[in-house]
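User: what does the whole thing look like in 3D?
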Amino acid sequence: MSKLNDKISVILFGGIMVFGLASTLLIPDKEFSEIENRTLAQKPKFTLENFLSGNLDDETEKYLSDQFVLRDSCVTLKSSTEALLGKKEFNGCYLADDKLLERMDEPTEQFNINIQAVNDLSNSLNIPLSLALVPTATDIYKDTLPNGAPTANQQKLLSFISQNLNADIDMINISSAMHEHKNEYIYYRTDHHWTSLGAYYGAKALLQSMGYQIAPLEYFNIKTVTEDFNGTLYSSSGVRSVTPDSIDIYVEQGKTKVESWRNGSPEQSSLYDFSYLDKKDKYSMFLGGNQPLAILRTGNDGGKLLLIRDSYADSLVPFLIPYFSEIHMFDARYFKQPLSTYVNSQNIDHAVMLFSLKNFLTDTNLTMVCK
Amino acid sequence: MVFSSMTSLFAYLPITLALYYICPLWLRNPMLLIANLIFYGWGEPKYIIIMFASILIDYIHGFLIEKYRYNDKLARKFVASSVIFNLALLFFFKYWDFLASQFGLPVLGVPLPLGISFYTFQTMSYSIDVYRGEAERQRNLVKFGVFVTLFPQLIAGPIVRYKDIADQITQCVKPRIKDVSDGAKLFTVGLCKKVLLANSIGKLWEVLQTNPDLSVVGAWLGAIAFSFQIYFDFAGYSDMACGLGRMLGFTFPQNFNYPYIAKSITDFWRRWHMTLGSWFREYVYIPLGGNRVNGFRKYFNIMVVWALTGFWHGADWNFLVWGIYFGILLILEKQIFMKFLPKLPDFIQHIYTLVLVVISMAIFATPQYFTEYLSKMFGNAPFFNATTEYYLISYLPTFIILAISATPLPKKLFNKLPEKLKDSLSTILMVCGIAMTISFLVSDSYNPFLYFRF
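Assistant: Here's the predicted 3D structure for the full assembly of 825 residues, as structure tokens:
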């Protein structure tokens, strides 16, 4: 073996490692990955205490892999390799019929805790409480999954929930509305959310349960705001072959005023923040993404609705505007106040919990606010 | 710390290696000792104290054994005391809780120090070899410390005996560029085995081992998956250790030699975890009399060695059963099977060996429920189901790649290439290998360390 070749090998070997270290240290850290829709690990604290507790090990590992410059390319390379090897699951996503379908894991104990939390909430409120759980696309398109592919049975989970809820809680059947329209474009192909059309059918079921009739589809003036949306599943799976999604809006801002509470004080905002259309996280265009509390003052007659939400609610809420004077969107993950206190202080007339079933299984914040 | 982590690849290794090459020769050993201790203490800093204790106590034993070399009775006592110290360390951390829980004594819940089974065996061999005159005592405490804590093989082998690297530690030779380059390539091969092969198939075992509706075929699939996982994981670590060792100027003994192409269980154990096998042969089997004793004693010796070998792998019943299983098979082969097995066609010999090995791995992999798992493999479950079909189909190409990688075929093909091409190709493959492993490590959180029970 020639000496030159050895030198080249050594330089390349060392070079890759030094590149990894130097690039991570020199390039400013990112706080949030829009592509993966999660906060990234930050520089660990090099304190003696942290070292002795053994946490430093874990934190360094997460930091280095989260902040690696080529992280996105890495995810793509891995999923392409796996696709080549005939794998059908990519980081928890199945690729089926030009759609990415997220695997749902069997629920843990948290599931029962959350059901109990909802029951506790209904006991402490003296207004009607509804629970609307949205199954994920994986349930709706179950028959397109590879044969035998493991994923939790969402129908079974939903019926378990409804059997264990207090009798005075109205469980809204979003699932059958979704199944009824499964041939329409109701879920994004590359993202875990429902489309605006899916949200329309969800809103229809929700309003119906409260005695309102939603306007027929023809009534809406539908505008496509982007046709180039690659969502969270696109990022986490690394699969790049799925057709990008388009995002539609059905309802215009009109006279609705939106008050966003992002940092403890109110700010004027709007139903749609179009600046997100230039970013990767385009779904956050609806209301500008997750926030602890948003209050919509619609200028219409009607009661006050409290929507205990996750991000599925952001695309649904425009459809509710004609029927309420105020809609309070409360996110239990970020806003820690007992809901009964909030309901009393704001004179709320009706409370609805609207979650993706997947979030409902795993959320760990409900107990804290459901009292 | 483990090699196949981002922390090691992007921080520990570049910094350690750079410092090592920059340091003047006389400073290399002290520098390496500090680097070793950081490597060891990274995950569990409190156990650095065990390292210090081991270094000091075994150093003193070496000193005393040599000093009283001409008073054999006394020297023997010091050897015994060294062995007792090391075994006590191992017993306390590794076996106390298991035995205590069996006999209703207080369970302490002390976490197992990483690699304790490996380094206690290495330091024991030091005292014994010094006593036997097979190795010279190391006079320099720092250099002795480097031997005890040498990071490449500290936590997952190979088990390096002092006499294997005594010269290299004492003389402190500058590694040649060729060693560094070859070492880097070997390290990369190991990294690929661990991250690309072992982790990929390990995921299948992870889902199958706890799958409530496992079929018979599924149970076998799981056991085969684990067999591949542990082999590529373990052999990968050994390659990484040997590669890094070479980069630092050490030559470690080979630990695996294509075990899955063995034609008998006897052959398998000549190819699997070779440094452990030779340790037990050298320090247990031969001192017991080996095969130079008669009748019953001969079988007794074999069974003792294999029960211990099994128990070394973990403090639980299944590991003991695993060792005894091999002990029985080896006796059977010696007495009966070997009379006709070699006359059968090769593929029957291979299948015979692989089936028995896969069964053994199923015992090895399922500490609390090995009887239950084995019963599923042998019919106590539906034969086949949709879940099994899904996993079989989506992992079939992976299995084929693993099977080929477990044979010498890729290496043979590579060696057929012209010399010039081999040079540049090996460099290109190395770069691709590192890029792939980094991609897999970055985008996946599944990266288990399998030897936490060892």
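In plain terms: DSSP finds 19 helices and no strands in chain B. Chain B has two domains: 6-172, 179-453.
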